[in-house]
Amino acid sequence: MKKNTFYFLLLVLVISLMAACSDNRTNTQVAATADAKSEDQDKGVATEMKLVKDGKLTFAMSGLLKPLNYKENQELVGFDVEIGKEISKRIGLEANPVTNPWETIIQGLRGNKYDAIIGSMTATEERSKQVDFSIPYYVSGATVFISSENKDIKTVEDLKGKTIGVMQASTYVEDAKKYTDKIKEFPSEIYALQDLPPGRLDAVITDRIVGISAMQESGLKIQALGEVIKREEIAVAINKDNEVLLEAINKAIEEMVEDGTYKEISMKWFGKDLLE
Asked: Which of 25, 172, 177, 225 pairs as cysteine with 166 (C-beta 3.0–4.6 A)?
């Protein structure tokens, strides 16, 4: 009787162990299947993105806009670059930042030289005729800068007839036309700002962040003339036939803001949240 009881209990134990192993295998298989399905979905989305290079998000900038995007030891760095790298990571792609002259940067995008422009481009109605824009990844404003020694220009009304410097093919060209027809265009705002102290320019219209950073980083003896003259939303530009990529980038930006990653990057470069 005792022997039969022993064999019965042993049989129950064996069956229980077999059931547990089966459950573990089932759970492992389910997890593996889910992972594989997720990976396949990611690959499918990446395929639909119409990327210039498989597995990479190639995004362009001028590389001349410190601290937003510039070269340090032959490597592209800056706020725009970090934002681009974070977006790339979140949509499962390798970041591939590149440079292109600003005056032809939209043509380069439309010619499929790169997938996106993440280079502090203002989203405007005119540009929207050629490309699509993501939700803003920072908000700034056009600002007038003058030499610290300039005593003649006290308000924007004093800009009438003055020589104003702007970056080529920027929205600031139209802003400058409101005050003067003496406009000098430069490949970079930094070059224009450097012409203020020696008096080669009377004023420069550029992004407020760029001007203030130039004052801090380069020690340029310049000053902002009052508050911003125009609020600007800066966004990622994408070709119009790439809706899947646009949706992925928008989602990535939203997630960055929600989980605090965006604020960390912004605080690192500017000491403030550029979306607030």
From this structure: 172
